[in-house]
Specification:
Layout (H helix, E strand, L loop, with lengths): L22 E8 L7 H9 L1 H7 L4 E6 L6 E6 L4 E5 L5 H13 L34
Parallel strand pairs: 1-2
Antiparallel strand pairs: 1-3, 3-4
Helix pairs in contact: 1-3
């Protein structure tokens, strides 16, 4: 009897083994003159360098866009991108938006039909303490 190797290749799952951050680049666009970029200008001067040094795996590009509202754009490893307009926001609100782009996966928001999602479906279903012989409540 011969022994055959499994033909299925293991599928990588993010979070098992090593975590790979989905955001690879964040573009920061601002205007030097407009009042809507006042919070973005102070964010760039005060908080961006600390945030960028704590996240070396993300590439940050800062570029002026004259006479336009400030915009944050996140680029992800799946090829998608998300843009957020941050006009008239203070630096702490902009920091929250940058963290939101950092933590996002780049995928569109999907409606969840089942409360439990799994790659491998269970044959028996979801266990509950009320299955079996019956427990007094």
């Amino acid at each position: 009897m011969t022994i055959r190797a499994l033909e299925k290749v293991s599928v990588g799952q993010n979070g098992i083994g090593a975590f790979i951050l989905q955001c690879k680049k964040i573009d920061i666009h601002y205007c030097d003159y407009s009042g809507s970029s006042r919070g973005m200008n102070s964010f760039i001067k005060s908080q961006l360098s600390k945030f960028a040094s704590s996240h070396p795996q993300i590439e940050f590009t800062v570029s002026p866009r004259p006479h336009k509202h400030p915009v944050l754009t996140g680029h992800y490893i799946n090829g998608k991108q998300k843009s957020i307009c941050v006009k008239n926001m203070d630096p702490l609100q902009i920091l929250k938006k940058v963290e939101l782009l950092r933590d996002a996966s780049g995928e569109k928001i999907k409606k969840v039909n089942k409360p439990i999602t799994s790659i491998n479906e269970s044959v028996r279903g979801v266990w509950s303490p009320y299955h079996g012989n019956g427990m007094p409540v």
